[in-house]
Specification:
Length: about 180
């Protein structure tokens, strides 16, 4: 079996399944899902066949696999509500900046851990969807996945932060140029 390493590839595969293969009933199950509930059958039908092909899926450790699945479920549910949300060419920080994501919410997103982080990501996805903005939400998954490894989590948080604030600065600069 060919093993893949890229989260981007995983999310592209899942996005394809959601947009082209999932039934209306499966999409409805995912849309109703709450972050703290066990995954519905639709999650396993859509995600599990894909997960087995990825090296980073922790098949040998049941607790890690459960956390991995909870994290993935948050984004899968968001993608079921708005399949256009996933755009790997736009970094998450840039997407949040372009959507006008409030700085306080952004700070909470980056500071949160475990269940609180899943809830913040769920809110973030709803916010992006309401603004019609898409981005690389696999970066949000990377943030959830890496929270237990403080060094990796810091790298992910810094990348998202740099992109968010760089985009904010560019947006402010272009606004200033319009006013001149």
């Amino acid at each position: 079996m060919d093993q893949h390493e890229s989260l981007k590839e995983l999310f592209e595969e899942i996005n394809f399944k959601i947009t082209r293969l999932a039934s209306n009933g499966e999409l409805a199950q995912l849309k109703r899902q709450k972050p703290d509930e066990p995954p519905p059958p639709a999650f396993y039908r859509i995600a599990m066949p894909s997960l087995e092909n990825y090296k980073f899926y922790p098949t040998a450790d049941e607790k890690k696999a459960m956390v991995f699945e909870k994290n993935l479920m948050v984004l899968l549910c968001a993608m079921a509500s708005d399949a256009s949300m996933f755009n790997p060419s736009v970094s998450l920080g840039v997407a949040l900046s372009n959507a006008g994501y409030p700085e306080l919410r952004f700070y909470r997103l980056l500071k949160a851990n475990e269940d609180a982080l899943r809830k913040q990501v769920c809110y973030m996805c709803k916010y992006l969807s309401s603004k019609g903005i898409s981005g690389n939400i696999s970066e949000a998954f990377e943030l959830m996945k890496s929270h237990s490894d403080s060094e990796v989590a810091q790298i992910v948080r810094r990348k998202i932060s740099r992109d968010y604030y760089r985009s904010q600065a560019l947006n402010n600069k272009s606004e200033e140029n319009k006013n001149v």
